[in-house]
Design goal:
mainly alpha; Cytochrome Bc1 Complex, Chain D, domain 2; 48% helix; elongated
Length: 234
């Protein structure tokens, strides 16, 4: 009688362990799938370089998309990815190599300028990290952009571009106007803490750790249960 009861208890415990292990492993797989990179755009170069259209009732960020297209896209990419080779290939063949002599290289054309060898992305993970808030970002764009003629943009256009970049990075709801009165409260990048934070546990490692821990715990419970049954039978 006691052996049957012990066998049933062991079977139930083993089934629970397998179920929990499956849940944890499944969670680890799901998290890794969700972090896969978005496929590259299948649009033609003509479509990618076309001027964005405005909705019937545009927000400030919608107008910022057009200002970005006019002033920022040639260097920072149609998706804010920076001046990557993939983006440069949307341009005519004789303009793909921006750094060749006579274009934007060491000896630019008349009234031209030398292009930096690395132009950073503005949209996506780990972008805009040197700007603590929207006010600092707007001030930087006003003082340093566009690269070939800093300070030439109107303040209104800069606010629109700033709102557009924040919206595309998920930092601004874009339903209200971004301006000097509220930009300081819009956080772009959190300052790093001075103390060293505790290391984060990787989700996939945690998924494989918990099932291993459950085995010894269940074994201990079974030993305690077996001893208690022996005491009752004696």
């Amino acid at each position: 009688m006691h052996r049957r009861f012990l066998f049933k208890t062991l079977s139930i415990a083993f089934g629970i362990a397998l179920l929990l292990a499956g849940l944890f492993f499944d969670g680890g797989i799901a998290s890794s799938v969700g972090q896969q990179a978005t496929p590259a755009s299948t649009l033609s170069p003509f479509e990618r370089l076309a001027k964005p259209t405005l909705p019937a009732q545009p927000f400030q960020a919608d107008e910022g998309a057009q200002a970005y297209w006019l002033h920022c896209l040639p260097c920072h990419g149609d998706r804010g990815q920076g001046l990557t080779l993939e983006f440069r290939e949307t341009y005519p063949p004789d303009e793909v190599n921006c750094w060749q002599s006579g274009c934007h290289g060491k000896r630019p054309y008349e009234n031209g300028f030398t292009l930096p060898t690395k132009i950073p992305p503005l949209i996506g993970e780990n972008t805009l990290q040197k700007f603590p808030n929207a006010a600092v970002l707007q001030s930087y764009i006003f003082a340093a952009m566009p690269f070939w003629k800093p300070g030439s943009l109107e303040q209104d256009d800069i606010w629109k571009i700033t709102a557009f970049l924040l919206r595309e990075n998920g930092l601004w709801n874009a339903r209200e106007e971004l301006n000097a009165s509220n930009a300081g409260q819009v956080v772009v990048h959190e300052a790093e803490a001075t103390s060293t934070p505790p290391p984060e546990i990787n989700s996939s490692r945690a998924a494989s750790f918990w099932p291993l821990l459950l085995g010894p715990v269940i074994l201990i419970l079974l030993i305690v249960l077996q001893r208690s049954l022996r005491k009752k039978s004696s």
